[in-house]
Amino acid sequence: DTAGQKNFRTIGKSYYTLTKAFVLVYDVTTEETFDLIQQFSQLIEETGLDVERRYLVANKIDLVLNRQVDEETGRR
Protein backbone atom coordinates (compact mmCIF):
# COMPACT_ATOMS: atom_id res chain seq x y z
CA ASP A 1 0.00 0.00 0.00
CA THR A 2 1.47 3.32 -1.06
CA ALA A 3 -0.04 6.77 -1.42
CA GLY A 4 -0.68 8.21 -4.84
CA GLN A 5 1.38 11.39 -4.52
CA LYS A 6 4.37 11.75 -6.85
CA ASN A 7 6.94 11.50 -4.06
CA PHE A 8 5.69 7.99 -3.20
CA ARG A 9 5.77 6.59 -6.76
CA THR A 10 9.47 5.72 -6.78
CA ILE A 11 9.21 4.09 -3.35
CA GLY A 12 6.47 1.81 -4.63
CA LYS A 13 8.70 0.29 -7.29
CA SER A 14 10.88 -1.33 -4.64
CA TYR A 15 7.82 -3.21 -3.32
CA TYR A 16 6.73 -4.55 -6.72
CA THR A 17 9.32 -7.27 -7.22
CA LEU A 18 7.25 -10.27 -6.08
CA THR A 19 3.80 -8.80 -6.66
CA LYS A 20 1.24 -10.94 -8.49
CA ALA A 21 -1.76 -8.64 -8.09
CA PHE A 22 -2.49 -4.94 -7.83
CA VAL A 23 -5.47 -3.16 -6.32
CA LEU A 24 -5.86 0.33 -7.77
CA VAL A 25 -8.26 2.55 -5.83
CA TYR A 26 -9.74 5.84 -6.96
CA ASP A 27 -12.03 8.34 -5.25
CA VAL A 28 -15.28 8.85 -7.18
CA THR A 29 -15.54 12.37 -5.75
CA THR A 30 -12.21 13.43 -7.29
CA GLU A 31 -11.89 12.89 -11.04
CA GLU A 32 -8.12 13.43 -10.91
CA THR A 33 -7.68 10.21 -8.93
CA PHE A 34 -9.46 8.27 -11.67
CA ASP A 35 -7.29 9.92 -14.33
CA LEU A 36 -4.16 8.86 -12.42
CA ILE A 37 -5.18 5.19 -12.66
CA GLN A 38 -3.93 5.20 -16.27
CA GLN A 39 -0.51 6.40 -15.11
CA PHE A 40 -0.29 3.76 -12.41
CA SER A 41 -1.30 1.07 -14.90
CA GLN A 42 1.52 2.24 -17.16
CA LEU A 43 3.99 2.03 -14.25
CA ILE A 44 2.87 -1.54 -13.61
CA GLU A 45 3.42 -2.41 -17.28
CA GLU A 46 6.90 -0.88 -17.17
CA THR A 47 7.96 -3.15 -14.30
CA GLY A 48 7.85 -6.15 -16.63
CA LEU A 49 6.34 -8.24 -13.85
CA ASP A 50 4.12 -11.24 -14.48
CA VAL A 51 1.01 -9.65 -12.95
CA GLU A 52 -1.84 -12.15 -12.71
CA ARG A 53 -4.59 -9.81 -11.53
CA ARG A 54 -5.46 -6.13 -11.42
CA TYR A 55 -8.43 -4.86 -9.50
CA LEU A 56 -9.97 -1.42 -9.89
CA VAL A 57 -11.88 -0.23 -6.82
CA ALA A 58 -14.15 2.82 -6.63
CA ASN A 59 -14.01 4.43 -3.19
CA LYS A 60 -16.56 6.79 -1.58
CA ILE A 61 -19.45 5.55 -3.73
CA ASP A 62 -21.82 6.53 -0.93
CA LEU A 63 -21.17 10.24 -1.59
CA VAL A 64 -23.60 10.39 -4.50
CA LEU A 65 -24.02 14.18 -4.50
CA ASN A 66 -20.26 14.75 -4.73
CA ARG A 67 -19.59 12.17 -7.41
CA GLN A 68 -17.33 13.29 -10.30
CA VAL A 69 -16.72 9.86 -11.87
CA ASP A 70 -19.93 8.12 -12.89
CA GLU A 71 -20.37 4.37 -12.67
CA GLU A 72 -20.31 3.85 -16.44
CA THR A 73 -16.96 5.63 -16.78
CA GLY A 74 -15.51 3.57 -13.95
CA ARG A 75 -16.55 0.32 -15.63
CA ARG A 76 -14.75 1.15 -18.91
UniProtKB/TrEMBL annotation:
Superkingdom in the source lineage: Eukaryota
Q: Which UniProt keywords apply?
A: GTP-binding, Lipoprotein, Nucleotide-binding, Prenylation
- PROSITE patterns listed in its UniProt record: RAB
- Check the record and name the InterPro entries matching this protein: P-loop_NTPase (IPR027417), Small_GTPase (IPR001806), Small_GTPase_Rab (IPR050305)
Q: Which residues form the signal peptide?
A: none
In terms of Gene3D superfamilies, this protein maps to:
P-loop containing nucleotide triphosphate hydrolases
Record-linked Pfam families: Ras
**Name of protein:** Uncharacterized protein
Record the organism.
Rotaria magnacalcarata
Q: What is the lineage of its organism?
A: Eukaryota, Metazoa, Spiralia, Gnathifera, Rotifera
